[in-house]
């Protein structure tokens, strides 16, 4: 994710009192008990440890005139526990549900706080693959989750759902945690004058009903719930097979963008295949089957690393072209989407690295080396709250600005302490290879850094990620022996790198 400082307000439909009152009453009679979550330390009720999803087949109709979303989601999952008939399992979901079938048998269900609790109607021993079909019909823009968020954003043109850490519950039932990745088949029927965009590759567009078209999207690589998006509206599409090797590349620009912003966005997004090729040469081969980007003013003040096709708010392109944000979101295809957080305490693994890849892009382009940018950030760091603990920012904001700023400085400190780019980039590649399509914790990275460097990086990471307060030395003065090293931060602040304003005009202004 990357936040833009100017937050925009979303168009939200009014919530009739009737709809709120009806919410709790809708049930195929009550499920047995409230299911427990997957055990994330920041969000204990989210997700489920009872099953592991392998595929979501989402089959929906969206009517922009009413804001109504209806259809079914078919979930293929494997039981991870002994789910005897009568056991309650949970799917993270907010929408009015019509029916639930498990293995073709009607299941009792209750729609509670952020959770569709379903009573398993048949015995499912551990390891059993089972199919759940949930039918639903609701107006997602009227729905807020337990935390008060309304992440389904709509205007007269259509709707977009793309958010972190939570977006799935506004449009399909899921195991909404990064540790349960799955493949996706997303099929959406919309008026023929609206486009429908999602992740992966569009396999077909069909027309069986006059005035309506069905768009079918397929994501073949494992994908997280929060990296899955849906956009319905009027877009200009661009792109063709590009990159090395050639991949389907599809970009889309909302037709209501300001013309200058559209031009600036194109000057950035159209470079996606080139930027992905550079990332692949710096990191490891690109992990996915397609590339692209979507620019839409309805994205509420941020950009998100939606898998294969990042989504960007228009604000990133107000000042001019902005290839840094394209680097950031595509770096997340490796750091975030392929190698994903094991818990919502591990956000540094995503944001620290995506931010540092922006520094490396500047280094390649001669607009300031990563070392120069990091030292300048350290010297002029009034915007960084040095008391945010990057290894545990807390549930109120799992992605604070400090993960991006201090988080990138921590990586420069590591690179400076290693003082050997062959070793530094070998560590990156081993990390991305070992945990590809999987999940990891910050502690796993520190373990690997210790193994690859043959040194203890523990003290360095304690200083830069965990200890409160500004480290006593600038990133490029870092060594592995912090205790023995005299602070040398008295050197004058370096000159402002040329890329600086491009980088930090697009990061949140929060202090
Ligand atoms: Zn990010």
From TrEMBL:
The keyword Signal applies. One of its GO terms (biological process) is proteolysis. Residues 1-32 form the signal peptide. InterPro entries: Aminopeptidase_N-like_N, Aminopeptidase_N-like_N_sf, Peptidase_M1, Peptidase_M1_aminopeptidases, Peptidase_M1_dom, Peptidase_M4/M1_CTD_sf. Residues 321-464 form the Peptidase M1 membrane alanine aminopeptidase domain. Belongs to the peptidase M1 family. This is Aminopeptidase N.
């Amino acid at each position: 994710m990357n936040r833009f400082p100017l937050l925009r307000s979303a168009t939200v439909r009014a919530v009739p009192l009737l709809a709120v009152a009806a919410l709790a009453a809708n049930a195929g009679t009550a499920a047995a008990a409230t299911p427990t979550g997957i055990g994330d330390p920041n969000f204990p009720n989210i997700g489920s440890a009872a099953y592991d999803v392998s595929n979501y087949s989402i089959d929906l109709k969206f009517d922009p005139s009413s804001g109504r979303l209806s259809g079914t989601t078919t979930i293929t999952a494997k039981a991870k526990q002994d789910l005897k008939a009568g056991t309650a399992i949970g799917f993270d979901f907010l929408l009015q549900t019509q029916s639930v079938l498990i293995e073709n048998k009607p299941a009792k269900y209750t729609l509670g706080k952020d959770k569709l609790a379903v009573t398993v109607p048949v015995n499912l021993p551990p390891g059993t693959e089972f199919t759940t079909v949930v039918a639903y019909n609701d107006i997602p823009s009227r729905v807020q989750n337990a935390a008060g968020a309304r992440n389904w954003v709509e205007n007269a043109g259509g709707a977009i759902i793309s958010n972190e850490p939570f977006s799935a519950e506004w449009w399909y039932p899921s195991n909404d945690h990064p540790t349960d990745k799955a493949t996706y088949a997303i099929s959406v029927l919309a008026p023929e004058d609206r486009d429908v965009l999602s992740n992966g590759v569009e396999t077909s567009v069909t027309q069986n009903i006059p005035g309506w078209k069905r768009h079918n999207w397929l994501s073949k690589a494992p994908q997280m719930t929060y990296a899955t998006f849906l956009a319905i509206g009027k877009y200009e599409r661009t792109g063709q097979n590009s990159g090395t090797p050639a991949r389907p590349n599809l970009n889309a620009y909302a037709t209501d963008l300001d013309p200058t912003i559209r031009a600036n966005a194109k000057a950035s997004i159209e470079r996606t295949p080139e930027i992905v090729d550079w990332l692949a040469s710096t990191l490891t081969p690109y992990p996915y089957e397609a590339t692209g980007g979507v620019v839409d003013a309805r994205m509420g003040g941020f950009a998100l690393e939606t898998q294969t096709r990042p989504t960007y708010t228009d604000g990133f392109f107000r000042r001019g072209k902005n290839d840094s944000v394209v680097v950031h979101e595509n770096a997340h295809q490796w750091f975030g989407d392929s190698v994903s957080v094991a818990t919502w305490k591990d956000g540094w693994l995503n944001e620290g690295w995506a931010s540092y890849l922006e520094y490396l892009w500047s280094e390649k382009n001669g607009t300031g080396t990563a070392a120069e940018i990091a030292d300048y950030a350290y010297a002029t760091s009034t915007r960084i709250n040095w008391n945010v603990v990057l290894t545990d920012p807390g549930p109120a904001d799992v992605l604070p600005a400090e993960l991006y700023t201090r988080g990138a400085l921590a990586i420069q400190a590591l690179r400076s302490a290693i003082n050997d780019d062959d070793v530094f980039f070998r560590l990156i590649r081993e990390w991305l290879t070992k945990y590809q399509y999987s999940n990891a914790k910050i502690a796993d990275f520190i373990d690997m850094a210790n193994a690859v460097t043959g040194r203890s990086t523990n003290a360095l990471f304690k200083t830069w990620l965990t200890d409160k307060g500004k480290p006593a030395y600038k990133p490029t003065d870092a060594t592995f022996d912090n205790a023995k090293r005299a602070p040398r931060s008295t050197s004058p602040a370096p000159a402002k790198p040329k890329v600086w304003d491009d980088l930090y005009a697009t990061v949140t202004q929060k202090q």
